[in-house]
Design a protein that fits this description.
- The protein has 511 residues and is α+β, with helices and mostly antiparallel strands.
- The chain has 3 domains: 95 residues, Immunoglobulin-like (Sandwich), CATH 2.60.40.10; 81 residues, Immunoglobulins (Immunoglobulin-like); 205 residues, 3-Layer(aba) Sandwich (YojJ-like (1).
- Helices cover 24% and strands 27% of the residues.
- It contains 8 helices and 26 strands.
- A 7-stranded mixed beta sheet has the order 21-23-22-20-24-25-26, with helices on both faces. A 5-stranded antiparallel beta sheet has the order 1-10-9-6-7.
- It is globular and about 65 Å long.
Length: 511
């Protein structure tokens, strides 16, 4: 009896020990993971490529085939996972093309695989041109002649994974009118056919044209369905006034300088609307000094502004050539400048952090480090005793060129790639000279400086940044949101260096 009583009383003790072990073990594992890098963040580790096979085709057209790891004809949807990707691939679903004569309209969605990533771009190859287009859903395209064309839609995720959808589009076929009259039966909402869902309008804004205090907004406004029309366009100019018009373009005159966030809303006949926002800067006009009034008939001399423009272009070309040559022959001065920038870059990203920032892009960590070095020298030294601000966009150069235009003469055009490496001390000195120009520097992922003075024309309505940041930060955040690029911005006020990825600030270097 004594032994049986001891055995029975020990069972609760054993159960308590086991429960305590189960409660403590997850905490020990989490602590070990946090201690691995000292930050509590488990770094992304390289893993083999992940190939996914989708078996559930719910919500997709019956003729849609999801291709597993080994493609089986007909190929409709192909998943391409980036090496080392740990997030689910993006989701791409689109309906059967709506054909009207030679015009094809596509409705669908492209969503990221998880909340940790975003959709950076959607490529459209309509099959009738080698040039790719970049749009969201829905979108219409008009072919030049009847026929059957292969349509390819590719959605790219911020971690490098893509999904590609392929289908055939037949346009221009004759419509056969039935010989018998058929009385249509209306379908009530909730009936056998269900309610008809009409998408909202599609609104795309172009870069605003600013002439002193006058601003002209232009873009494309397309109805979401052939059954509806665009009724009006409303523009909130962010200065207490608004304008209502039948369509774009719309012109407005500001009464004072400043940075304004303009909201444009397109209203559809069924009550739906689409709103886009774009930031613009109105600069104060500097009055010209009074001078003598010319008398007599005008001569045949060329206008003064034409002479100044020609002299400016010639001077820029000469300065560019001299700086590039001087930089290659005198790297000692560039090294001394980098030494002076040392105190500012004390909190620059570590090699491990550079790798994490560049993950999923074509940007090499060493290239991004060189860009940060130049940005730090610009923030530290300024120019002629004055603080200046500038911006860099690195990687995915083809898409970045598509979403930008040349603002001034490109000083790097025509030079060999070996003479335009961002890691070269001479080129770094040249960049610091041209940082005073308006616009951004464009640099490839391998470090070739493609352009300076580039104006970014991307839609910035989906960008959310902290208060106090101007148009330079907004434009770089916008271009990194729609492309797989990395942005670096030097703030003129305060000398802060902000690194952007996916439309957000991922790292800040403080002086």
């Amino acid at each position: 009896m004594h032994r049986a009583r001891d055995t029975t009383s020990g069972i609760p003790l054993i159960i308590a020990v086991v429960c305590l072990f189960l409660l403590v073990t997850p905490g020990l594992v989490s602590a070990a993971a946090m201690g691995a890098n000292g930050t509590g963040i488990i770094p992304d580790l390289p893993v083999p490529p992940i190939f996914l096979s989708l078996d559930n085709t719910s919500g997709i057209e019956p003729n849609v085939t999801i291709v597993p790891t080994t493609p089986v004809p007909p190929v409709f949807m192909v998943l391409e996972n980036a090496t080392g990707a740990v997030n689910p691939p993006p989701l791409l679903i689109f309906d059967t093309p709506v054909i009207e004569d030679l015009t094809c309209t596509i409705y669908g969605i492209a969503e990221p695989g998880s909340g940790n990533v975003t959709i950076t771009s959607i490529f459209w190859d309509w099959g009738d041109s080698p040039t790719l287009e970049y749009h969201g859903f829905p979108i219409s395209h008009t072919y030049s002649s009847p026929g059957t064309y292969p349509l390819t839609i590719t959605a790219r995720q911020s971690d490098g994974q893509t999904v590609r959808g392929v289908t055939d589009v037949t346009v221009g076929e004759p419509v056969i009118i039935p010989t018998t009259t058929v009385t249509p039966t209306p379908t009530q909402p909730g009936g056998p056919g269900g309610p008809v869902v009409i998408p909202p309008p599609v609104l795309t804004l172009l870069e605003p044209a600013v002439d002193r205090m006058n601003v002209t907004l232009n873009g494309n406004l397309i109805a979401g369905s052939p059954g509806v029309t665009i009724e009006s366009v409303q523009v909130d100019w962010d200065d207490g006034t608004s304008t209502t018009a039948a369509d774009l373009p719309v012109t407005h005159q500001y009464s004072a300088a400043g940075i304004f966030t303009v909201a444009v809303t397109g209203n559809q006949s069924d009550g739906q609307s689409a709103t886009r926002k774009i930031a613009l800067e109105i600069k104060a006009e500097i009055p010209a000094p009074p001078g003598p009034t010319p008398s007599g008939p005008p001569g045949n001399d060329p206008p003064l502004f034409l002479i100044i423009a020609v002299m400016g272009i010639i001077g820029m070309v000469i300065v560019s050539a001299v700086l590039v040559t001087r930089g290659r022959k005198d790297p000692v001065n560039a090294q001394a400048a980098r030494a002076r920038a040392g105190p500012l870059l004390a909190n620059r990203p570590s090699p491990e952090q550079l790798v994490m920032i560049c993950a999923g892009t074509e940007v090499e960590p060493g290239v991004l480090d060189a860009v940060i070095q130049v940005a730090g020298e610009i923030a530290w030294e300024g120019r002629e005793g004055k603080a200046i601000g500038t911006s860099f966009v690195v990687g995915d150069i083809a898409n970045v060129l598509h979403y930008s235009k040349q603002f001034v003469l490109n000083p790097f055009q025509g030079h060999h790639e070996t003479e335009r490496q961002i890691t070269d001390a001479g080129i770094q000195g040249t960049i610091k000279e041209f940082a005073q120009l308006d616009g951004a520097f464009l640099i490839t992922g391998s470090g070739v400086v493609e352009a300076a003075g580039r104006c970014i024309t991307v839609d910035m309505s989906q960008v959310n940044l902290p208060g106090g940041m101007g148009s330079r930060h907004l434009s770089v955040a916008g271009i990194t949101k729609v492309t797989a690029s990395i942005g670096v911005v030097v703030s003129q006020s305060g000398g802060l260096i902000s690194i952007f990825r996916g439309g957000k600030i991922v790292y800040v270097i403080r002086s």
